[in-house]
Specification:
The chain is of the alpha/beta class. It folds into 2 domains: 107 residues, Rossmann fold (3-Layer(aba) Sandwich), CATH 3.40.50; 210 residues, Rossmann fold (3-Layer(aba) Sandwich). Helices cover 47% and strands 15% of the residues. The chain is built from 13 helices and 11 strands. The chain has a 6-stranded parallel sheet, sandwiched between helices. It has a 5-stranded mixed sheet with strand order 1-2-5-4-3, with helices on both faces. It is elongated and about 70 Å long. It starts with a helix and ends in a 5-residue tail after the last helix.
Length: 327
């Protein structure tokens, strides 16, 4: 897809092209090892508009172009000019459909499903942590399980009072790196559960099956805390979905500082997923957080997502594109 705009422009130079890059753009030192770097950059620059989630990724891209190809960078316009063609570089933080998620989460259907799941999984009177990710080495799933294990070691009074539910389907299993991370996660779940389980309680419930969207919303409804411990993430929409689903202003967001959404969601509780000792204390801190503080934070987070929803994102992109028709 990176090369599509280049081929379009070769056939029809007047067609306006835009491209949105959903994942992080690396710094120039990382990108320079790519064997097809010149072709990729030229494909990007054939567009009239290129969008990234955050300003940091825009800056990384511009610095990469400066090092790798002959082009003029206009810092005032945040654009790159190559062979007379200007490409605008913009940050467009993507979002979710706040109203649709909030309305569906508050429906009787989702409330009833949440009650069913609570009973099926024996979650009555439990403090529920939730992870909702595809099985991927960038998501920091081993780190959260290691931290949860140490939390139970350090604060055993919370045993049988907390449960960590991890949902997410296996992906790209034919790739060795994904096989390895899947094996590591399975090993950690077995070790933590063997170490801490009692006859009536296991600390981690791990589901790798496909979970329907309505069930995901039901899990969001159940969860007291969403845990997002990504090691590197362009945005992370799980955080925004969880917030949108919390129509009653309950819940807490534990959020990695290495996600794009961390720039917007300042009322989340931030972690460095590599700092396991800090992670442990955050688990304890969110459990002991006062209800009025949780509500205060969630109200602010919901207002942020309500205002900066997916339609706002699309409008910003279209508005930027419309400027080309004014020239």
């Amino acid at each position: 897809l990176v090369l599509v705009a280049k081929y379009i422009k070769e056939k029809s130079p007047d067609i306006i092209c835009a491209y949105f890059w959903h994942i992080p753009w690396p710094n120039p030192e990382v990108f320079r090892i790519c064997p097809f770097k010149k072709e990729i950059i030229e494909g990007f620059l054939a567009n009239d508009l290129v969008g990234f989630h955050i300003r940091y990724h825009c800056d990384n891209f511009i610095e990469t172009v400066e090092r790798e190809v002959e082009a003029k960078v206009d810092r005032e316009r945040n654009s790159i000019i190559k062979e007379g063609h200007e490409c605008l570089i913009r940050a467009f933080p993507i979002s979710v459909d706040f109203k649709d998620i909030s309305d569906l989460a508050s429906s009787d259907k989702i409330k009833d499903r949440a009650k069913e799941l609570r009973k099926e999984l024996s979650l009555e009177d439990k403090i529920i942590f939730l992870g909702c990710d595809r099985i991927d080495y960038t998501k920091g799933i081993p780190e959260r399980f290691i931290a949860f294990d140490r939390f139970l070691d350090k604060y055993p009074e919370y045993k049988e009072k907390v449960v960590f539910i991890q949902i997410g389907a296996i992906s790209r299993i034919l790739i060795q790196a994904y096989k390895d991370i899947n094996s590591e996660i399975n090993r950690l779940v077995e070790e933590v559960n063997w170490k801490h389980s009692t006859s009536e309680w296991a600390p981690i419930i791990f589901s790798k099956r496909f979970v329907p969207y309505e069930d995901i919303l039901a899990f969001y409804s159940l969860a007291d805390v969403i845990v997002i411990s990504s090691l590197h993430d362009g945005m992370n929409l799980v955080a925004k979905e969880y917030i949108s689903s919390k129509f009653d202003n309950s819940g807490v967001v534990i959020l990695s500082q290495f996600t794009g959404s961390a720039r917007e969601l300042q009322e989340a509780v931030f972690i460095n997923p590599y700092n396991i000792a800090e992670f442990v204390e955050v688990f304890k801190g969110v459990i002991e957080m006062k209800d009025d503080e949780k509500e205060r934070r969630m109200k602010i987070l919901r207002e942020i997502i309500k205002e900066n929803n997916i339609y706002h994102w699309a409008a910003k992109v279209i508005l930027e594109l419309s400027k080309f028709y004014l020239y």
